Amino acid sequence: MNEKQIKETLSQIKDPVNGQSIVNTPHLQKLEIGDNEVNIVLAYNNLDPDIKNKLNFTILEALYEIIPEANVNIHFENQAPKPENPYPHIKNIIAVASGKGGVGKSTVAANLAVGLQKKGHSVGLLDADLYGPSIPTMFGLKNKRPRVKEIHGRQLLVPLTAYDIPLMSIGFILDPEQAVVLRGPRLSGVIKQFLNDVLWPELDYLIIDLPPSTGDIQLTMVQTAPITGAVIVTTPQAVAVDDAIKASNMFRLESIDVPIIGVVENMAWFSPIELPENKYYLFGNGGGQKLAAYLEVPLLGQLPLIASVGELADEGKPAWQAEDKILSSYLDNIIERTVYYTQLRNKQSDPTRIVKIKS
Ligand SMILES: Nc1ncnc2c1ncn2[C@@H]1O[C@H](COP(=O)(O)OP(=O)(O)OP(=O)(O)O)[C@@H](O)[C@H]1O
Ligand SMILES: [Mg+2]
Hints:
Elements: H1 3-11, E1 28-33, E2 37-44, H2 49-66, E3 71-78, E4 90-97, H3 105-118, E5 123-127, H4 135-138, E6 147-151, E7 154-158, E8 160-162, E9 165-169, H5 176-179, H6 184-196, E10 203-209, H7 216-224, E11 229-234, H8 238-252, E12 260-270, H9 287-295, E13 299-305, H10 307-314, H11 325-348
Parallel strand pairs: 2-3, 4-10, 4-11, 5-9, 5-10, 11-12, 12-13
Antiparallel strand pairs: 1-2, 6-7, 8-9
Helix pairs in contact: 1-2, 3-11, 6-7, 8-9
This protein binds adenosine-5'-triphosphate (ATP) and magnesium ion.
């Protein structure tokens, strides 16, 4: 059966409660189109029986017009609809966070995105650091501007792409001087737009590069999108670990409840190129492990301090692009474990709910 035609026909029918099209209303809980069968589940809290019968009849009649042979089942549930997911085309939203600044969130976020993409996942990268966006530089897209596309009267931003990864950053829209003056509602507005008014394609992973610490951006993020989980980045330094605990505690607040997928320890040690076996623990040793143990989450991996990581980033190439065997083995490990623990999280717990502001 022609799925597109069926959806188009149904989209002409209005939800009697909110006036939205019946295919886009949150009351639609299920629309299954099989070989010769259409199953529809609608959930309403105490819908007037006359209105319900009329809606039932309208749907049956409309579908009979185009698929008279098909078996159409419409089931009404008498309950409030389950929370809607405004981003059904994005399977996992992973926020990369830290307490302290400069520990390597953007480096980890960019390399996670590139590495996941190389492994065949579809990935997008959202730079949510409105004060210090790094993604344009790291992907060699400085001074580039996204196109605007009008769809059903809405102006939507088309992400820029590098290494087949759709990317969005405030750096593509505003000059750095303009971005620093964003405050409160305007700041939240930009974050919301980055999720709602950007043409993100179907994605297995949307990686979000957050600014350090906890603040308006993190709060807006959890109020806008169901974050599948957070990856916490730290260096081995005690101050970085302490701040990472504070940042993690925000995600774990009962009212926020975003699971932590694991910890990445960056700048774990330094090995000179001429002596790759020698490890110098410049910032102390074991901070990532300690943090992971404290939070009772896995240590996803360690990334040593490697001069080329920083140099490549400045040239617009995430380190993954360098064919450095040692470096890619560390990154590989982090990526595999991130995928594994994200899948495990999805098996073990319910999807994250968008945080509702209590007033
Ligand atoms: N493993 C590494 N080896 C060498 N240089 C690194 C490594 N990780 C990060 N860097 C460099 O350290 C600097 C800070 O990293 P990055 O920008 O990723 O941190 P951040 O946590 O996103 O910072 P901010 O809090 O400012 O957003 C960058 O210049 C980056 O290239
Ligand atoms: Mg950053």
